[in-house]
Amino acid sequence: MSLGVALFAASMALASGVESSASSLPQRFEEGTALFDAGQYAGAAEIFAELHRQVGDPGLLYPLAQSLRLAGRCVEALAAYRSFVDASADLRSRAAKADSQARIERLTVDLNNASARLVQMRTCIGRLGGGQDRAASRMRKASGDAQGAIASLSQVWEQTRDPTILPELAEWHRSAGNCTEAQALLDLAVSQLGALEAITGDGAEDLDLTAGRAALGKARALLAGPACSAPQSLPRAQEDSAVVRTTATLTASSSLANAPAGPPPVRLTQIPHAATSHPGWYPWAVGGLGGAIILAGAVCFWKDQQIQHELESQGNDTGRFSSGQAYYRAGIGLSGLGGALVVGAAVYAWATHERSSISQPVIGANGDGVVAGWVFGF
Q1: Dihedral of CA 177/178/179/185: which sign?
Q2: What is the count of structural domains for the chain?
Q3: How far is CA 336 from CA 286, 299, 316, 332, 333, in A?
Q4: Are residues 219 and 282 in the same domain?
Q5: Is position 110 within any domain?
Q6: What tens digit of pLDDT does each residue of 48-99 get?
Q7: Which of 18, 104, 126, 219 has the greatest number of beta carbons closer than 10 A?
Q8: Residue 256 falls within a domain, yes or no?
Q9: Cβ partners under 8 Å of residue 32, min gap 6
Q10: 77, 192: one domain
Q11: CATH value at residue 177
């Protein structure tokens, strides 16, 4: 992988007469280049950063940025690429003074690559810093919370400025009928991600570059696909398709057949079964526990009766008498507790069933007039 204009920057720094470090500059640069070629990108970055501090030449920012990127230090690489691009006017002027067409062309390639790497580094930052939030947004979308998912993913975009988010966010806006927002996001995605096509001769594809190009392809496919259209009102029958409804129209009696026309007929609407509540297994479990406790109390009473028979046949025994009294008290306590649990479970089951069976009015409106909906539970 070429370090591009850095070679030119080093030679220009020497020519400018940097006194204290001019003698060691070429050697240190060669050391950094050797580390870079050996895949030791963190070490190469340290050397190029040191050279840049000594010389202050912006041309050294490109090899520094390349090393930081390949070392996985996206935030620092983003800053180095940006500084290199910001210094493009100075770099072009110096390349022109050197009167070398090869150097001018190499500088142009490096500046284009650096501009594209800015987009890639934002993708890297988004992957590392916003990956979990992005996954959470997708989970909200899958659960049916479209507006919440859009708001969540929009926040991830604002925080990371990762352009690979834009096509997905635009697609969600289109699904919600937000055509203007979707179009603006897709245009921005193509504008930013299109810069990645300038990366040439810069080594193998990596995860973020591949993701960026895939997002660019998706944005272009959405733009070339069917046009976005805002949702239209559906017929009433289609609006009610997701809800189980039974409608009964109250007809006038024969004595009112000639009465003046009045309000539209009232309709009774059944709300989905999921809206009701049911006792479930809780009262059965509590009632069963209460029964078991009552049975234990019965055993205690039986044990007390045995002891009483023994005392009658064998004579008084203070110890046995106390034991019998203990069984008797335990039987009373257990029976009371078990009975309370059984009664409580029964009352709970009855109250829950009654609550789910009682009608609760829900007033709404449709195209025919006022509708009175009623919640039924079974």
Answers
A1: negative
A2: 3
A3: 14, 14, 30, 6, 5
A4: no
A5: no
A6: 999 999 888 898 999 999 999 999 999 999 999 999 999 989 888 888 887 7
A7: 219
A8: no
A9: 43, 44, 47, 48, 51, 63, 67
A10: no
A11: 1.25.40.10
Backbone angles phi, psi at 370, to 5 degrees: -70, 140
List, in order, residues 6 or more apart from 325 with CB less than 8 Å away: 304
- For residues 211 and 246, membership in a common domain is answered with no
The neighbouring-strand residues paired with 179 are none
Q: Is 347 helix (H, G, I), strand (E, B) or coil?
A: helix
Helices assigned H by DSSP within the chain: 6-15, 25-37, 41-55, 61-70, 74-86, 88-97, 101-142, 146-160, 165-175, 179-193, 207-224, 236-239, 282-314, 318-357
Domain of 291 in residue numbering reads as 237-251+264-378
Predicted pLDDT at 87:
92
The answer to whether 279 and 306 are in contact (CB under 8 A) is no
Written as six digits, the tokens of 233 are: 């009102």
- As a whole number of angstroms, the distance between CA 310 and CA 306 comes to 6
Whole-model pTM? Answer: 0.55
